[in-house]
Amino acid sequence: MRQNLWDNKGIALNRQIRRSQVVKKSLDRNSTMLLDIGCAEGFTTNFIKNIAETVIGLELNFEYLKIAIKKVTTVHFLNASIEFLPFREKTFDAVTILEVLEHLPTQLQVDGLREASRVLQSTGTLIISVPYKEQRTFTTCIHCNKDTPLYGHLHSLDEDMIGSILPNRLFEPVKKYYLPHLEMISCLNIFRFLPLSAWLKINNILGKFNVMRGYWIVLKYIKI
User: 10-26 vs 196-208: helix axis angle to the nearest 10?
Assistant: First the structure.
């Protein structure tokens, strides 16, 4: 089981806070129903719980759900998987899929995004975040003696790869944020208390000069 995000401190915690803030910034504040698919322990769900009138966190892992239910109030949490969403068509006007797709086999990615599209209303918002062009690390499995990707990341993803597995012609990209793996911007005390807008400006300036690589990418789509 991975480390509980709520237990992070210092650099690791600041990265997660910034990513969650950018996800929140990407969402429309007039949403009625929001679905957070693969919400894990509810860390980012806690940041976006006031964006919509009703927020539902969906998670397959029972241990993560137990933590989320304890930590996050005013959110409804359900145990379900991305390829079988237990909702009617066009139930939600916002859907988030955060740090999920890199863990899924390709067919499950396709099936899950098709389901997300099914439950999302026309003109609804889809937010996806993934590690950006990750240089994956492999370790030898003690059970099968085969190379296994660390953290269960099966894919290295970017915006083009995400676009290729989205349901054809159903989503229009409208915004993307590249978030740094640069400790100076993400984590040092001199920048830690900056407002998000100022932090993003510094991030974007450094990005233009290739001072850093993106650690995460947050993508915003509108369903056509």
Answer: 100
Domains annotated on the chain, with CATH: 5-181+215-223 (3.40.50.150)
Q: Would you say residue 181 has pLDDT above 70?
A: no
Chain centroid to Cα 224, Å, comes to 21
Core vs surface per residue 12-51: b (16+ CB within 10 A) or e: ebbbbbbbbbbbbebbeeebebbbbbbbbbbbbbbbbbeb
Contact 174, 197 (CB under 8 A): no
pLDDT of residue 7: 87
Residue positions counted in the chain: 224
Whether 77 contacts 56, CB under 8 Å = yes
State the residue for tokens 């892992």.
61
Tokens of 78: 């359900």
Q: Is the pLDDT of residue 128 over 80?
A: yes
Residue 206: its pLDDT value, please?
72
Query: What is the sign of the dihedral through the CA atoms of 210, 215, 220 and 221?
Result: positive
pLDDT digits 0-9 by tens, 50-89? 999 999 999 999 999 999 999 999 999 999 999 999 999 9
